[in-house]
Amino acid sequence: MRNPTCVRCRAPCRSHPMRDLDLTSLRLFVSVCETRNMARTAEEAHIVGSAVSKRLAQLEEAVGPALLVRKRHGVEPTAAGETLLEHARNMLASADRIQRDMAAYASGVRGQVRLFATASVMAESLADDIASFLQDAGHRDIRVDIEERISPEVVRGVRQGSASLGICWASEHGADLGDLHARPYRTDHLAIVVHPSHPLAGLPSVQFEQTLDHEHVSLPTNSAVQVMLQRSAAAMGKVLAHRVVVSNFEAALRVVQANLAISVMPREVAEPYADAHGLCVLPLTDTWARRRFAICFRDELGLSSAARLLLAHLQGAGSSPD
């Protein structure tokens, strides 16, 4: 295989190692890729256009292949540029987290934990569990940052080190934890939420198969529960009909309230809203409807003392009666 052409030598070469990449150039590169316009990037960065061009030229020289190509109405990234764009966004996000974390220590924090959790966990008991942890006098100097992610992103974030702890549905139907360690957390119960005038409304409980003749409002299709529902429908020789796709439970409940569709969601999330708005919550009788969530992490010995304290607290909360 031929060596790639070196920008500095203009010939196949392995003699020039990649120089360190500076964050300012990466920020400008990301902005140019997103706006497709160097002049607009320069204006937003409050610098002259020639400075942007110079930075990007230096960036290309540092990495080797051409990153941008000029088009009639601006510029766009090459294949190599698209790859660098993905890496640059991750690097900038990491740099922003470093800045926030160091600022927290400067303001008096003595420990910090970043935790990723799914929408179900966020909407149910996690906030209360974190609050009770922070109310302990021994934890007053610990900061806990929480981000909502879908199950695959929770696992990926923990595996890549973006979060110390993650909480997601872990089972044959949920996220594949792979080589991550796990501790049990809480459980919930999936149910169908319907408008009181819906044909299913009078039933005490339902099987998932009974819902497949009706249109659903769903969360993002790559979330663990939606993937499982689609597979279950396919196993029955049917298709899960999505009328509406939303990003959160509140939006899904509003769609149900308008009688546009029905929704599968945790009973623990649906019941308070349903009681206030007259909706019907029908427990699902399928075996997978009772879900067990897990706290995942890479290596307990590698966790900070603050993360180990939080892990123990959450595990204890999960062992309490639901």
Task: Describe the overall structure.
The protein has 322 residues and is α/β, with parallel strands linked by helices. The chain has three domains: 19-98, Arc Repressor Mutant, subunit A (Orthogonal Bundle), CATH 1.10.10.10; 108-185 and 292-318, D-Maltodextrin-Binding Protein, domain 2, CATH 3.40.190.10; 187-291, 3-Layer(aba) Sandwich (D-Maltodextrin-Binding Protein, domain 2), CATH 3.40.190. 42% of the residues lie in helices and 21% in strands. It contains eleven helices and 13 strands. It has helices spanning 23-35, 38-45, 49-63, 79-106, 119-123, 126-135, 151-160, 224-235, 249-257, 267-277, 305-318, and strands at residues 5-6, 11-12, 68-71, 74-77, 111-117, 142-148, 165-169, 181-194, 216-218, 242-245, 263-266, 280-283, 290-297. A hairpin with a 4-residue loop joins strand 1 and strand 2. The longest helix has 28 residues, at 79-106. It is globular, with a radius of gyration of 25 Å. The termini are far apart. 32% of the residues are buried. Residues 1-15 have low confidence and may be disordered.
